[in-house]
Amino acid sequence: MKNKQGFTLIEVTIVVLILATIALITIPIVRTIINNSREKTYQINVTSIENAAKYYHQLNSAHINNLLETIEEVSVSVDQLKAEGLVDEDITNPKNNKLMSGYVRIKKISENNFEYKYFE
Questions:
Q1: Which of 19, 20, 24, 32 lies at 20 to 30 Å from 119 by C-alpha?
Q2: How many angstroms separate the CA atoms of 105 and 116, rounded?
Q3: CA distances from 108 to 28, 41, 71, 72 (A)
Q4: What is the residue extent of each domain of the chain?
Q5: CA dist., res. 7 & res. 19, Å (int)
Q6: pTM of the model
Q7: What does the angle CA 52 – CA 99 – CA 34 come to, to the nearest 5 degrees?
Q8: Which tens digit of pLDDT belongs to each residue from 76-120?
Q9: What is the pLDDT of residues 61-81, one digit of tens each?
Q10: Would you say the C-alpha torsion 71, 72, 78, 83 has a positive or negative sign?
Q11: Which pLDDT value is given to residue 38?
């Protein structure tokens, strides 16, 4: 009587096919979860930058409000917010892993009502 050890080619092939099927199903799902997570993190970072611009506006309200009387909108760069210590120096865009830059547009909507919008 022979002592049989190891797996047959058919058994190995079936295991590989099962693993390939599992990978084909799970990879797109995991990719979608990662992309959704990156988008949510991006939106959180944008909100953080816009809130920093609101605070910057409060700190410099006299100057910015005077500007808004003569021009339609004022822009505050993300670099300026970083320099003021209002935004983390290494805030990154999770979509491309690069430092976030750009500016926030401050626009007067009505008396004591302003819009803060981030642009890359």
A1: 32
A2: 6
A3: 44, 28, 10, 7
A4: 9-119
A5: 16
A6: 0.80
A7: 100
A8: 999 999 999 999 999 999 999 999 999 999 999 988 899 999 999
A9: 999 988 988 899 999 999 999
A10: positive
A11: 96
Average pLDDT over every residue of 4-14:
88
- The neighbour count for residue 32, using CB atoms within 10 Å, is 10
**Look-up of token digits 């505050």:** 76
Res 40: pLDDT = 97
Task: Please list the residues that pair with 76 across neighbouring strands.
Answer: 104
CA angle 113, 115, 118 (to 5 degrees): 160
Cβ atoms of 100 and 58 closer than 8 Å: no
Amino acid at 60: N
At 113, phi and psi to the nearest 5?
-130, 120
Is residue 101 within 8 Å of residue 45, measured between CB atoms? no
